[in-house]
Design a protein that fits this description.
The protein is α+β, with helices and mostly antiparallel strands. The protein has 6 helices and 5 strands.
Length: 158
């Protein structure tokens, strides 16, 4: 009997109960964090998950993000996010500069080294994700669109 585990409860394959959307998303979230952690390790980079999130946040726009925007997106207060960014700047992963429109704000962008690290980890993660979906039934395009929309929605949760 195969065990299917969801936070807060366990099911076996002999119990045909379909997981709730929240249970399914929780299982997917845990799996995706595991894949990202493995991709970080296989890419040969020493990054914490928080540092990885910073790289992803600042790489989403050509002009990067302010320290405040980074803090909000990674679920941190500004002071710890600022310290994290300073450590990343010292390692050459990001560059910082005063915001052109608001000189009180500091803007963070990927350095060339940070971009190379991000690209290397993303390549490993895509390889792992590709391997994970091999042998699965292809999902219909409307489901793929919904999953993509859900991913975008999850990125906006604060």
């Amino acid at each position: 009997m195969e065990c299917i585990c969801y936070p807060g409860r366990m099911q076996t394959s002999s119990s045909p109960q379909t997981p709730t959307p929240t249970d399914a998303l929780e299982s997917l979230a845990v799996g995706l964090v595991a894949v990202t952690s493995l991709a970080l390790a296989r890419a040969g980079v020493e990054l914490t998950f928080a540092q990885w999130r910073v790289l992803m946040v600042v790489s989403q726009h050509d002009d990067g993000a302010t320290v405040g925007e980074v803090a909000t997106r990674i679920g941190s207060a500004i002071s710890p996010a600022s310290r994290l960014i300073t450590r990343m700047r010292r390692r050459g992963l990001v560059v910082t500069e005063k915001d052109a429109h608001d000189h009180r704000a500091t803007r963070v962008r990927l350095s060339d080294q940070g971009r190379a690290v991000r690209d290397r980890v993303m390549a490993r993660r895509r390889e792992l994700l590709y391997a994970a979906v091999q042998g699965l039934e292809p999902l219909p395009p409307p489901i793929l669109r919904q999953l993509s929309e859900l991913g975008a929605t999850l990125e906006t949760i604060r």
